[in-house]
Design brief:
By secondary structure, the protein is an alpha+beta fold. The protein has helices at 26-34, 77-83, 124-130, 135-138, 151-159, 171-174; strands spanning 5-9, 23-25, 38-49, 54-63, 100-104, 119-123. The strands form two sheets. The chain has a four-stranded mixed β-sheet, with helices on one face. It has a two-stranded antiparallel sheet with strand order 5-6. The longest helix has 9 residues, at 26-34.
């Protein structure tokens, strides 16, 4: 039961994020229900008890207040990998996130900043080979420029990468706006 997670939807019933999915532990979801911060949308078959009340464990909840986004994605390691499609930007090989690092295109030691336009996903061998050089100096051209992605682009990429342990009750809320096969 400790592995049960709850999908969190915004007040418009869309996920707060697609990848990684906006998930809470079931305990946090029950707390939010008790505090009247979310609406219960779907639940697991499991029930938890307090001394005075019993709750079905929530599998999907929706926030009562809409959380607006400023249109810019968070600058995170995971979003860098997502923007770069989990592919080393030097050798063009795909990797799982655990086998990727990020690399400063213009090295930090030479004034390079840690920002969208200067950081790319890289495998460890390429990162070590490039070392403290620019891609030109290392003769390792980038397969694509490092640009700040839109939230829409990250969501499009993430929809091609479904999570491995999705509960069936989540499917209606994750893919409702994708094109249907006729």
């Amino acid at each position: 039961m400790s592995s049960l997670q709850t999908l969190v939807l915004n007040a418009d019933y869309r996920p707060l994020s697609y990848h990684p999915l906006s998930l809470w532990s079931w305990k946090d979801a029950v707390s939010a229900l008790i505090l009247d911060r979310v609406n219960l949308v779907e639940s697991y078959d499991k029930v938890v008890h307090s001394p005075s009340i019993a709750f079905k464990v929530p599998s999907v909840v929706a926030l009562k207040r809409y959380v607006s986004f400023n249109g810019r994605p968070a600058f995170t390691r995971y979003n860098i990998y997502l923007r770069d499609n989990f592919t080393c930007q030097y050798c063009a090989e795909p990797f799982p996130a655990k086998d990727l690092t990020f690399d400063h295109v213009h090295p930090r030691s030479r004034g390079g900043l840690t920002e969208w336009t200067n950081v790319v996903a890289a495998c460890s061998p390429c990162n070590l080979k490039k070392a403290n050089r620019t891609p030109e100096e290392a003769d390792m051209p980038l397969i694509q420029d490092a640009l700040e992605p839109s939230v829409r682009l990250l969501n499009q990429v993430s929809r091609r990468l479904p999570p491995s342990d999705m509960h069936a009750s989540w499917l209606d809320y994750l893919y409702w706006d994708t094109e249907l096969d006729l």
